[in-house]
Amino acid sequence: MTAPVQTLGSPTTSDLDDLVSLIRLLGHTLDADVLSARLARLTVDAGHQTWVVRDVDDRIVAVAGGRIVWAYNDDAPTAELLLLVVSEAGRRDGLGSRLLGHVEAWADTHGARVVNAVGAAATDTASRFYRKRGYHEAGVRYSKLI
Asked: How far apart are CA 53 and CA 75, in angstroms?
């Protein structure tokens, strides 16, 4: 598939349905209303961006989302890849690699020197995907429900 990577923009009802289906592949529970509200907060003004790849029928078959963050320990921002998922039908076509390359180019235009795949699923498949593309495990993240 050679469809271009596009910025999501304002999602249609069909777009939301496609995105919900993709995000559910990662094991998350949500519906179109919940996702619509979340996307309303994940704005360019807040440093976020969402990209999609569409098939010949204009259906979303892959999505990536990221943000730019600033830290206390560096003068350059860091890019965080928060979401990357490709439909089962679109896998093995290079869509994940194309989206990841697009995110990396976007990060570079924002002056980031590092991309952290913070939303990466902790699976063997995801680990192989990121390692093959030059990513490595970096540190430990601690979380607490409050």
From this structure: 33
Question: pLDDT tens, 8-43?
Answer: 999 999 999 999 999 999 888 999 999 999 999 999
Distances (CA, A) of 32 to 17, 21, 23, 66: 6, 10, 11, 20
CA–CA dist 22, 85 (Å, integer): 6
Model confidence over 117-144: pLDDT tens digits? Answer: 986 566 778 888 899 999 988 877 778 8
List the structure tokens of 46.
């807040």
CA–CA gap between residue 66 and residue 81 (Å, rounded) = 4
Task: Note the pLDDT of residue 50.
Answer: 97
d(CA 79, CA 8): 18
Distance, C-alpha 122 to centroid of its chain: 15
Domains of the chain: 5-132 (3.40.630.30)
pTM, 2 dp:
0.90
* Long-range contacts, 24-32 (Cβ 8 Å, 24+): 25/85, 25/87, 25/88, 26/85, 26/121, 27/121
Distance CA 120, CA 13 (A): 26
